[in-house]
Amino acid sequence: MRSLLRSLGLVYYRTGKYQKSAEYFLRLAEVTDSLKTREQASSAQELATAYETHKKEAELVERANSIKVRNAWLVGTAAALILLLVLMWRQMRYARLIKKKNSALVENIQELLYYKTELDSIRQQSANPDTDEPTAPTDTTDTSDIETENRYIFELLDRKINEGKMFLNPDLTRDDLVHIAHTDKNRLAKIMQQHEFANTSDYVNRKRLDYAATELKSHPEYTINAIAESCGLPNVPTFNRLFRKRFGMTPSEFRKTLSTYR
Questions:
Q1: Which of 10, 157, 217, 252 would you label with 37, given CA atoms 20 to 30 Å apart?
Q2: pTM (global) more than 0.70
């Protein structure tokens, strides 16, 4: 349309019709201004559209990132919760197993103490009524007779140790046992092995630990330190170690498990 208006304006100008020519050139200017305005408006609209599109895209990206972060947090939280539940379950299961094991150990310890008391009672009844001591063997010529004599020496030693509760003395030594048994160190060592004791210390410590187990059961108000000292093992770490080695549990675990039976 602009080219047509320009042509008409030129034709009228050449023919001397200047007013008419001016009208067409004026119209051409208006059309040109209108087109420029439209182009500017269109450009502005395009810019606005591009801006809005970019803004929406940025919002979508931000939303997607936010969703990813939230999902990652949810997954992490769920994993941590599952791990915590697994650990709690394992801890509870372990606690149940320990409780079951300790209960079985306590029953075994109580049976052991009962049978030991019964054995001591039988030995007491089998003692010579005149001397209150085991009956001495009459002949020691062969191996079986030597073992019989060793058993006599052990029962005599065991009776004296029990009656006087000499094992409660923390300073009791092997030499003291040799003196009480009226024998020598080598034979006493063989006697201990014959009765399934590693040595004299093992023999004495078993009596101390059995006594400690009885005290733990009979006197729940006593402290572990007090019982350790009273049984002849004043060093508490040593007492705990030996008690666990003999019974499979610590004095504290033994006492705690015993409380469930009361």
A1: 10
A2: no
